[in-house]
Prior knowledge:
The protein has 14 helices and no strands. By secondary structure, the protein is an all-alpha fold. The longest helix is centred in the first third of the chain and has 35 residues, at 2-36.
Amino acid sequence: GARAAAAPRGGKRVRALVLVLLVLQTTVITLLARESRIPVAGRPMYLGAAAVLVSECIKLPVCLAVISRQLGGPRQMLADVRQRVVVGWRDTLAMGLPALLFGLQNMLFFVSVSNLSATSYQLWSQSKTLTTALFYVLYLGGALRRLQWLSLSLLCAGVGLVQASDSVSAAAGAASAGRPLLGISAVLASSLLSGFANIYLEKKMKASEASLWVRNVQLAVFGIPQALFVLFGLERAALAASGPFVGFTPTVWSVVWLRALGGLLVAAVIKYADNIVKCFAAALAIITGMLLSVPLFNVPLSPIFLVGAASTVS
């Protein structure tokens, strides 16, 4: 009886810890990423593709270390990874699509934060809820209740008001966040990719006994080569001129590590929490990010913006 009672309490503590970490990660990475993409005279801008590659390379050894700890040592880990990743190559191949989508999403993240304020990015990224719901209905054949449709309508209204507020601020001569239309297009495309990738991954995970950490290894099999292709192919000229780590300040390294942590937190959220907790964490991150943006970036919070934020969070 005592042991059974302790288990739920332990589960609640883990869930609370995951929630706190997710809120902190979402808030801090958005603020730091926006800060890192603001041009500074005399300081070269870092390559987003290089940041994505490094974060992917960080996640892989962490996942292998967790598998090793769970199975009892490196030898057992290697045997399990070989069996599930190499021998079970068909299952690994199925991870190619979400890996491609997640990689594109990572690239679009840096485009978004380069052209939107931190708070606007967080609010627009809530459109992931809309795209996830869309693919939940179309791909998984799920059904949404009336209250859920109402929530999605409020979300759409909220992001519309936020953009109206940004347009008014820009017209009034406020500090520009770059090219807002490009930033919005990038974050909406990212949300579309993320929505399908998450639903696809959920379906595959429920149909297999592979652990979340093995899934991350399978994703890395495709994610790392993709990041290498973007860096050494599409960014070849910039890479040849300045090298891969140009502009990597302590802030950029923090973004890279937080990006890697975010990928691992997804696994923890799926295991210890649920979609409700994820939405709650995203809402809290919007509020904290909005409040911190005022002193850090001198972001004015107009009445229209506040109404849009409240509608989006609700």
